[in-house]
Amino acid sequence: MLDPFLPPIPWLKALVQPVCDALSLHTLPLHIHEILYACALYHFIFAYLAPPLSSLLLPNSYTKLSYKSKLRWNMHCASMVQSVAISILAPLIMMIDKERKSMNLEERMWGYTGAAGLVQALATGWFLFDLIVMIRYLDVFGLGMLAHASSCLLTYTLGFRPIFNYYGCVFMLYELSTPFLNIHWFFDKLSMTGTKAQLYDGLTLLVVFFSCRLVWGAYSSFNIYRDVWNALNLSNSAKFETNSELMRFGNDRSLPVWLVVLYMGGHVILQVLNVFWFGKMIAAVRKRFVKVDKKA
Known about the structure:
The protein has one domain. Mean pLDDT is about 90; it is low at about 290-295. It is globular and about 60 Å long. Helix content is about 75%, strand content about 0%. Helix 1 (about 10-20) crosses helix 2. By secondary structure, the protein is mainly alpha-helical. Pfam families: TRAM_LAG1_CLN8.
């Protein structure tokens, strides 16, 4: 399936082409404009839209927040837009991109479709913005969030070789839990801690987070590890009937050790962080509602 977004900007594509060729990121020139558009959009929401709009609509809540809480509020606003958009787009592409759905082992490893590339580009734009914010406000967001942003940006950027283009949409389903996380955080800042609305959201958050990040994440990680293992042990005589259009960027069908270590290492970090965050979420929900029960 072709990329349904705007076509590449010729001068921008020509500008980054030499660097991308040197780094073997062969499909990146086709999507660099989408990455920059996404990064600029999230920065606009974070820095220029969320602050005045929140002050206007919620003057009694937003204006009383501390400096650090305002930064977190603005970040959650940008995250809400990103997570809702990608949670709609990624499953949609997985359903309607017939070429992607029919990929065999080689195509899942080195194949490419423009539609899956769009999802990958929008995710890369978010993680680029996320990394910039995490570095700039490291004292506010901490090393854990910096590690998360770095790992995700590295993983999705490497995908433009192309490699694992098939899995870009798969791992974006992690974001299905993020809207509920944002809502839960907003409830705290709107003096709605311990309300039934927050309880229902908190329970939904735990169920969705466990399902999409731990269960689906573990299942998808197993699949990608299996594909990597099979590709590494693929004999030269083994032949697949590959779609030439899907494999038009797949001339270099190699798996260097550094690439496997970086990509797989990034996934391990993300899975460890997911388990850690799930434990923190359970503790946070229990802390809020155990107090309510005692008062009752």
